[in-house]
């Protein structure tokens, strides 16, 4: 009730009380007006008056108690999840099956972290004690993508209100004990800054030099590039014969990761200059590199043969970075950085951006075409 209305009631009550005290005649008239002339009705009215107050309190109390009981029941309502190995876990209604697995410290794959994007948490429903909620839009779309049968649901999206028996479909023995390890081993979607380097002229080098020479020269260059990645706090990822990929921001803030990748590119250019100086008598043309940098979502995890896996990334952002690196040739610069990376690094530059079309991407992408000097300027 609005405060002004309450104040009005209080004001009126005080006025009436004051008048009743100072004007007994008025008070008697008021009382007489409220008493029916008929004695039977007057008695009934008096009885009602005695009951009205307590009854009102009783009704309010009843409504309040019903609401409390309902809340308590909702808070304490539970359901059970039974797994294929007959382990049964009880949980409050509202939890997803994946949350129940995590609460019970059961290994349950969930590569995308419960965002209905990877479907690795999928379970087969082996039985229920009633109706399960229908899949929402996200879950239905993900299940359609993998052509899942009707009895398959995403554990991260399914929040049962009745007991349910489930069978996780990706084999739990594949999953290691800790969530961190699961993320690294099976991939985890996260926002990273990716850097691609391509060594220019490595093919002609191989054609004009003895193989031992080529190995020595390329290894010198790779050592210099890998050192730049390490110094900048990045993770050396793929080695592709004439290039490498590095990841930044895996264990630090997005802004820091983006800035580290840009600093890494600068260190690479500087290291390359000193390497070229050292090898001046050895090389017909100095080493040159093209670098592409982009920030976006990627699946990051350990990939490769079980005994020698490397931390790598896959996804659209990785492909985009590789294509940005290719555009360095078209734009005639050693470095192309996406506007996403500039924004992630908190760099607001007044330099004109280029709009480039990348293979496999609709529309154009805004990028900064940089050389060593302009990169140094934006990093100051
Ligand atoms: S955890 Fe990825 S879809 Fe459920």
Which CATH class of the largest domain is shown?
Alpha Beta
Q: H/E series, N to C?
A: HHHEEHEHEEHEHHEEHEEHEHEEH
Distance between the termini: 59 Å
Structural class designation: alpha+beta
Number of strands: 13
Are there runs of 5+ residues with pLDDT below 50, and where? 175-182
Q: What's the architecture of the largest domain, going by CATH?
A: 2-Layer Sandwich
If you consult CATH, what is the topology of the largest domain?
Alpha-Beta Plaits
Alpha carbon gyration radius: 36 Å
- Rounded mean pLDDT is 86
Percentage of residues assigned to helices: 40-55%
According to CATH, the homologous superfamily of the largest domain is: Nucleotide cyclase, GGDEF domain
Per DSSP, what share of the residues sits in E-state strands of 2 or more residues? 15-25%
Ligand names: FE2/S2 (inorganic) cluster
What count of domains describes the coordinates?
A: 2
Instruction: Give the overall shape, derived from the CA principal axes.
Output: elongated
Query: Can you count the helices?
Result: 12
